[in-house]
Amino acid sequence: MSIEKTGGDHVDRLRVQWARELPDLDTSPMSILGRIYRLSMLVRPGIEETFAAFDLDRGEFDVIATLRRAGPPYRLTPTELYKSLMITSGGLTHRLKRLEKAGLVERIPSPEDGRSMIVGLTGTGIKRAEEAFRADMESELALFASMPAARRELLAELLRELTENVTSNLADREN
């Protein structure tokens, strides 16, 4: 059935408009990337609201979640953290200062090199990371309540494939 007959979604309507204006242009990437972007914009406020309920912003949650996922003793070097988070060392320093002030992380002298520090979760940080993550997953799971598990699994598989494809294509461009 054509978009014109079904009305389609927001992305379909954009593609119809572009097809009218630039009929020679293939807008099929919008079918995927446009929807991914739109979904991200739709869910972002709810995710941010969930973290705000735990006195965290998204970036702060990312730091404490990364430390929590690292497993006991929930410690990483600043370099391991910023590489894992794909942010600059300066961006990490700013987040760590706020988290340290809130009592969620601590900087511990490295046993291997007394000149460097390791970032570790405090007991409060471990608890906050777990509570915030549980609340986030509950909230996000509710978004998929009407989608059968098999469809969610298929979608996850397709998105994994897309991510690998895009990553590979971007790496090829850099070489």
UniProtKB/TrEMBL annotation:
The record's annotation in InterPro entries points to: HTH_MarR-typ, WH-like_DNA-bd_sf, WH_DNA-bd_sf
Q: Name one GO molecular function term.
A: DNA binding
Spell out the PROSITE patterns in the cross-references.
Answer: HTH_MARR_2
Q: Which UniProt keywords apply?
A: DNA-binding, Transcription, Transcription regulation
User: Does the entry feature the keyword Coiled coil, yes or no?
Assistant: no
Q: Which parts of the sequence belong to the HTH marR-type domain?
A: 29-164
Q: What SUPFAM superfamilies does this protein map onto?
A: Winged helix' DNA-binding domain (SSF46785)
What is this protein's name? Answer: MarR family transcriptional regulator
Q: What species was this sequence derived from?
A: Nitratireductor aquibiodomus RA22
Provide the organism lineage as a comma list: Bacteria, Pseudomonadati, Pseudomonadota, Alphaproteobacteria, Hyphomicrobiales
